[in-house]
Amino acid sequence: QVQLVESGGGLVQAGGSLRLSCAASGRTFSSYAMGWFRQAPGKEREFVAAISWSGGSTYYADSVKGRFTISRDNAKNTVYLQMNSLKPEDTAVYYCAAAEVVGGEYDYWGQGTQVTVSS
User: Fold this and answer.
1) Could you list the pLDDT tens digit for every one of the 119 residues in the chain?
2) Rounded to an integer, what distance in angstroms lies between the CA atom of residue 115 and that of residue 20?
C-alpha cells in the first residue's frame, strides 16, 4: 500500500513558477514509477509527466515539455514537479500517482492540489 499526499499548489501569475511535492508513505516507494496528472474544470484527467523508480527515465506530455521537470528523492519518499513558465491553460487540479511500472496502471492516487495561473 502507498498513500500519497500532494502539496505546493496555489495561485501564480502567468510566467511564474511553482513546485509541487508528493509525499509517499510506505517502505516500497522506491520500487514504484510515479506520475503527475491534472484535471481542469470540465475536462478529462490528462497525463503530465512520469518518472521511473530509479529516476533514470522521465516522460512528459508535449504541452509541458521544456517547462516542467519531474524528479524524485527516494530517501525522502517524495516526487516533485517543478513547473516554470506557467500558462493560464495549466490551471487544474494536479494529482500524483504510483504505478508498478512506467506506462502501467496507476494503482495509487493522491487527493490533488489546485494550481491556478492568472493571466
Assistant:
1) 889 999 999 999 999 999 999 999 976 888 899 999 999 999 999 999 999 999 999 999 999 999 999 999 999 999 999 999 999 999 999 999 999 887 789 999 999 999 999 99
2) 9
| Buried-state track 76-89, b at ≥16 Cβ within 10 A, e below 16 | ebbbbbebeebeee
CA 58 to CA 35: how far, in whole Å? 9
What would the 3-class secondary structure string for the chain be? CCEEEEECCEEEECCCCEEEEEEEECCCHHHCEEEEEEECCCCCCEEEEEECCCCCCEEECCCCCCCEEEEEECCCCEEEEEECCCCHHHCEEEEEEEECCCCCCEEEECCCEEEEEEC
Helices (H), 25-96: none
Q: Which residue has the cell 517502505?
A: 27
